[in-house]
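User: Here's a chain of 310 residues. Predict its fold as tokens.
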Amino acid sequence: MNEPDQEFTREILRKVRQIEIKSNRLVSEVLSGSYQSAFKGQGIDFEEVREYQPGDEVRSIDWNVTAKMGAPFVKQYREERELTILLAIDISESTIFGSESRTKRERLAELSALLAISASRNGDKVGLLLFAEEVEIYLPPANGQKNVLRILREILFHRNKTKKTNLNEGLRFINKVMRRRAVVFFLSDFIIPEFSSLEEEDVEVQFYKEISSTKRRHDLICAQIHDPNEISLPKVGFTTFEDAETGERITVDLSNNEFLEEYAELTAKQQKNFSRKLQRRGIDIFKLSTNVEFDKALKEFFHLRKSRRS
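Assistant: Prediction complete.
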């Protein structure tokens, strides 16, 4: 192995260890019990049928057995002791942007570490899906600390084969491969443009079709990462922007107040519409920024899920 490879390996180990130490502390100090209360108890397996007793839910009656036996029987279920967690992460080139100290991809890695370590401590299996324009890596759900460390390493240092975003491809893979019900965290910046052509409209329609299918099969949570300079552009005069996924460049005058106001209004409208469409389908969305610590917000999000389930 040559020297650059050795240096790269040391950098991988350093960053993975750094995130692991921070995440272990946050899980212990902030998220202790929150993960379990938000997700445990929702998975159930069929166990047996037994005779109906006064007070049993009418909806639990097994009508086929009831017809055969000539008396009412109900289905009994037992709680799953182990959940399956899937971290499905958009690693397209737009996630390498960060206007301050950390990129969107690094923040997604931190969130993934919190979720993976929380799941591992509760004895749950964790899997990983990395996708951009196509699926690039799939690690089937597994237990153990080694699995968690491999997940962190892949999120931080996997070198993309493709640059563009194809959310539909990630969703299609989940719907095809994940047969058993799982808790799916779908992590992306969800930068969805204004759909101005029939082709783009078809992509949007397909996205909501695929994500609705994922929601029916799994407990789906969307985690959306953004950078503050994507929401509100800085007032810095003429600036050239380059699309990380297509290479397209555009120069705009960021001292123009009218342009800045229109951009902020359009961005806010797009985000509001996106959140509303997900909520209408019963999909939870957790939002985080590159410049704000999210551990307390994540704890509140878990508690909100618990209260809704109760």
